[in-house]
Design a protein that fits this description.
Layout lengths: L1 H4 L18 H12 L13 H13 L1 H10 L12 H5 L1 H10 L20 H14 L5 H15 L7 H22 L3 H27 L4 H16 L8
């Protein structure tokens, strides 16, 4: 294990997780970690020291998480056609262009996934697990659409609309229900799904804080993080939607 750990480089700087915010993703993560016997605390929805320690323990002792964590540090980067400097050099213009499309994820403007969480270990881990759960290569058009959605969400300067929030909640509910049904068919499916859900909720928690750092409220950040998670895993997990 020490030899494997030596292969893992420190993750790029990510948003600090607030321990004083109660959230659904934290409760769901605590449930999973408790079921895996990594978490002994209460299901209170606060991401405190106990939850953080349990997650790190899961990374070391859940075989699926440990395996995929090693993989992501050896896998090549995936890039898209249009460079990030378009939004980083001209952020106001890029934000106005995205806003003119009327939503997050419109196919009219294709840009690279330039979000800072693209390099976060938690997001890379989630992407790797989703890719294998999908079992086949995602549709190129869906992949391009998701890349644009991620770029738009990174530049977000307004909350999602009520209709968009309802739609993303519907997607989330269907995905989790279908994954659970698939997991019940086989013990190996259960192990893979448990690892994926741990990675999913941990990534959502981290991304919620990214959006709160930008000035959004906790509920607004929850919806934006969930939409970002969809842009990350949606193309790979289309068969579960």
């Amino acid at each position: 294990m020490r030899e494997y750990e030596a292969l893992i480089e420190p993750a790029p700087s990510a948003s600090n997780i607030r321990s004083n915010v109660k959230r659904r993703a934290a409760i769901e993560l605590q449930k999973l970690l408790k079921a895996e016997n990594f978490y002994k605390g209460s299901l209170d929805g606060y991401y405190g020291a106990g939850t953080a320690t349990a997650y790190q323990t899961a990374l070391q002792n859940n075989r699926e998480l440990f395996k995929y964590r090693l993989y992501i540090h050896a896998a090549p980067d995936i890039s898209y056609s249009l460079p990030c400097w378009l939004s980083s050099t001209h952020p106001l213009e890029a934000a106005r262009a995205q806003a003119s499309l009327g939503g997050y994820g419109n196919a009219g403007l294709k840009v690279q996934s330039c979000d800072p969480f693209s390099k976060w270990e938690e997001v890379l881990l989630l992407e790797a697990l989703a890719a294998d759960l999908g079992a086949s290569a995602p549709n190129p058009a869906q992949t391009a659409e998701a890349a644009s959605a991620r770029a738009a969400l990174f530049l977000a300067n307004r909350p999602m609309s009520a209709a968009a929030e309802r739609e993303i909640e519907s997607w989330y509910a269907a995905l989790m229900a279908n994954l659970s049904n698939w997991a019940n068919r086989d013990p190996l499916h259960q192990k893979m799904t448990a690892a994926y859900k741990i990675a999913f909720f941990q990534a959502c928690i981290r991304m919620e804080d990214f959006y709160m750092d930008k000035g959004f409220g906790s509920e607004e950040a929850k919806s934006l993080a969930l939409a970002t998670a969809r842009a990350i895993v949606g193309p790979s997990l289309a068969r579960f939607e």
